[in-house]
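Translate sequence into structure tokens.
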Amino acid sequence: MANQKLVHDNADHHVQVAILGGGLAGLTLARKLGANADVMVVERGGSHPGAADPACAEGEATGLPYPFADTRDFRLGGSTSIWAGYCAEFDDLDFAPRDWVPLSGWPISKSDLEPFRDEAAHLLNLSSADFRPQSIAKGAKRPLPVDLPALEVTAWRFGRPKLNILRQWPLQSGKLRDVSIQTGTRVVDIRLSADHSTVSHALCLTDSGNTFRLYADIFVISMGGLESTRLLLAANSQRPEGVANSSGMLGKCFCEHPHLSVDGFSIHPDHPLTSWAERGVDTHDHPFAFCVGVPQHEQAERQLLNARAHIYRTPQMDLQETPQLGIFLEQCPSLSSQLSLSKNNDADGIPNLTLNWNINELDKHSFCKTAQFICETLEAASAGVIRSRLEPDAITANKILHSNHQLGTTRMSASREFGVVDADCRSHDHANLYVIGGSVFSTVGWANPSYTLALLTLRLAQHLEAELKGFSL
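Result follows.
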């Protein structure tokens, strides 16, 4: 295939790389691999903006409330059509084993992602891969105050324009060389080889009701944190536990970044910190924002999960109103917080998802102690006053907000026992099956996942390029 093309047919296909899911990760991989390999992307949605698939709303939340419809999008380009553009780096600590955090520790370190920082920033339309607040603030066209002693000041960067793949990438003009994109097509089953060591083919269903088989040397599942897990669990015709699930960990350790307003702290309306409710602008006219956290050594001493506090106004607040303080939290991986299959099927006969999302005692402890540390530090700096302290009993379901981040359910692990994929995002069970997305995060850190996902995707592309070269030798 000389050029990228959008296809729609029901004939069986044989390609080198089958990418199941056409969001940020899937299309980035296609763009990286397509010049030197025969690649097909299968995407459930269409190639033009439009109403979200009604199936987005299907699913049952049995723990904390979770709106399936509002948190994802079935279109070419995936959730880049609806995301808010927040980009931030993970901390070194996020990748490390922490004896107070169960199942913590990635099989890779932050340094393994370092070679891909500049390319990831370019991919996300960022002006720089430098996230150091002092560096950003220096000479900024619209600066923000950055000096808050005893707190960890951290930056978000925002792309200009905010990445929207469906609108910005030339998906129909031949710029994705040697890539076929099959839209309006759902992967409904994964079939394994006779000895189950590899994937044989994916069974695909077109929106016209036809089916075809997609054979490949390499399969990459990149359908998002919910749908990737759902497909692997539902593909249980050969293995009752599903595909890539010999550990029983598939679907477990669902994590979000739960958000909680700290109502007991009042910011002084004339303090410079209130300017953090607005975004600064760097020397390249790109927006940025700041937040604060407990320093890493204090997190260890106090046995806290990673978190950040930000200054914000709700959409209902007037710009003259004094902003509020809120905390968004890294969740502790928990076996009881999980995705599983419902007894009810959707219109295509695929079981719906059941999500039991909950927070545990370490989550509550971290919310309370993080709020206490930050509020006491801000009060000492004359930035505000503590009116009441956050207590664990006050952290109720009606006060916790979600962040639209579905993470951890196909987690990366050094050994098969504790996860679904290895350090290269390859299934522990099937040699030619990879999974990429926020679902592979071993722990989820404090940061919004898109920048780290871009780094992991570029690293996976490098690995697959090497593997494809090995096939051709």
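Note: The chain has a mean pLDDT of 92.
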